[in-house]
Amino acid sequence: MANFIPEDKISEIKNAADIVDVVSEAVLLKKTGKNYVGLCPFHSEKTPSFTVSTDKQIFYCFGCGTGGNVFSFLMKQEGLSFPEAVRRLARRYGIDLPDKPMSPGRKRQIDERERLFGLNREAMDFYHRTLMTSGTGRRAKAYLDQRGISDRTIDDFKLGFAPDGWDRLLNHFSKKRVSPLMVEKAGLVVPRKNKSGYYDRFRNRIIFPIFDSNRQVIGFGGRVLDDSLPKYLNSPETPIYDKSRSLYGIHRAREKCRDSGTVFIVEGYLDLLALHQHGIENCVATLGTALTAQQVRLLTRFAGQIILVYDSDEAGLRSAQRCIEIFWQEHIDFRRQDVFREEKADTHILVLPAGHDPDSYIFKYGPEKFLEAADRAPGIITFLMDCAVRKYGLSTEGKIRIISEIQAPLAAINDPVARTLYIKQAAERIGVDERAVARRVETAADEKRFAAGVPGRGVGRSGESGKGDAAGPPGDDEMDRPESRTERKIIAMMLQFPDILTEIKEQNVLKYFGNNVLKKIGEFILEVYPQTGSQVSELIVRMDNRQQQQIVAALAMGDESWNMKGCLRLLGRFVETGRKIQESGLLDEKIRTAEKNNDQVLLLSLLKQKQKMAMRSEQKKMAILNEKQ
Fold it and tell me: Which stretches does DSSP call E strand in 176-277?
């Protein structure tokens, strides 16, 4: 089971696979000109903006900014890793993948993971048999019956029971000659404090096996049958179990999430089982901790809408607000522009009526009422406004506190239209002038950017490229700057008109790029030197950075009419401007040095030089304006 796949095999698979065939299995495509279009599978839309190029073997959605090649599509659509996507296509097109000898350390690591998976499967079977066939499991089975959990649900989720006693599971593994050290590594037993041996971690508890999205058993949760504490006990972190990246029920929910486009997130094992049992299978549960950014990213591979479901009590509301913070952080981490761009989801908060959790609500009212309540669930911003109004009231002091509480999440909204609408909604809700709210939000946004070391832009601005301009990933402030639009156009030229690459290299055009992301892409293009449009897909394969992959897909998808004369004219203007900016920068540095050294003669000479440069620039602008008139 080697993870290494030779580069030549990846190229062979890419050349054999037809992206239109692969995408057509998930998206209804219609031919439009040279390309195919359809409704994007990664976000909700009514007008098709998802485009597939058969010539370039890439896809790009002009609505949500997701793009890439055939491997990228499978990774996003199926939630696969890159090696898994490669293997999937290799099997489909009958291409053999040779194994490469692994290092001893890597082989030990893989062997250990496989042994841990095996131990967990064995433990799951032990617990399940104890629940269903052993006398010691009768009390646990009666408890599940009382909670309304059916035998089919018990079997579907392989629920079990850990019998009372300190070494029941330990003895089971001892009979199979399994090392206690390995059982400890799986998190199933705990070493005694006096180092005299081990004892079972789970005792006298109902057991909930935790699966990953590939249906491997990675850990366990255990619930007591009485009021003992802790009420729930989960496996510790192990080489195969990372609580922050795992979700209970994901193995059964992923396909239903894709089919419906929605995922419900609940907090408890029994809440999830109740929903699944009533036909709401697009549901997962967190594992005793608040929702994490990694879990959000995992879920947005499978669904475009997330509905967080909470109890109406104080603890439930606190949990809702803690989880909301994860979504804020994903939006407002300006230092990581690529984090949430492709995974952003439509998120709602469903708070159930007083006295109910998802388990009790669905058993009492049924799935139809639950789904009706979900349809009415407010979005994050509306929910926060409602909470703030209930908390502070609408007195003058209350309104001030409400604005203070909601200004950060409002500032975190990247879409300027959505942000403006929410600001309007907030102003109307609490009876405050809309401009005053907007100013507070703008201040919050600038403070966050300043703290992150990113220049502010003000709330009301949004970069809009011209119709003929190749689009980049939506919402990227750096890409929206005028100078970046020209640099983006040059990258699009390099991808769509490879004849210009020699000229770009000889003129050292990339030297004058101000956008570091675009500059790195340009350098990579010159390194790979694709000679045809179809090699863009190969370029994407060799890129590790997901943001750069998205930008390349977007820029390569354009269909401008390039010619050498027009390209040279654009490059000439760009290089000339770049040189002047560099000269001006050097001159400014000399002026600062002269001021620092108090060299008045040199300073006067430099200032005159700067004035002449400014006059020449102004004269040139006027000449251009006169020509246009």
Answer: 189-191, 198-200, 205-211, 217-223, 232-234, 262-266
pLDDT along the chain (629 residues), means of 10: 67 84 84 87 84 88 88 86 86 77 74 92 97 93 96 97 94 94 96 90 97 89 91 93 92 84 92 96 87 79 83 64 60 33 64 89 95 91 86 90 86 77 90 89 72 44 35 46 75 86 88 86 80 66 78 81 84 82 67 74 70 64 52
Residue at token pair 């998206």: 27
Rounded to whole angstroms, how far apart are CA atoms 60 and 353? 42
Cα separation, 132 vs 364, in Å, equals: 27
Q: Please name the helix (run of DSSP H) or strand (run of DSSP E) that holds residue 162, with its range, or none.
A: strand 160-162
Exposure string over 71-99, b if 16+ CB within 10 A, otherwise e: bbbbbbbbbbebebbbbbbbeeeebebee
475 Cβ contact list (under 8 Å, min separation 6): 65, 341, 414, 415
How far is it, in rounded angstroms, from Cα 89 to Cα 597? 67
Grouping H, G, I as helix, E, B as strand and the rest as coil, residue 468 is coil
Whether omega for the bond prior to residue 230 falls within 30 degrees of 0, making it cis, is yes
Among the listed residues 183, 221, 188, the one whose alpha carbon sits nearest the alpha carbon of residue 205: 221
Q: Quick count: other Cβ atoms within 10 Å of Cβ 542?
A: 13
Burial 329-338 (b: 16+ CB within 10 A, else e): ebbbebeebb
DSSP state of 248: B
Q: In which region does residue 158 sit, left (phi positive, over 0), alpha (psi from -120 to 50) or beta (all else)?
A: left
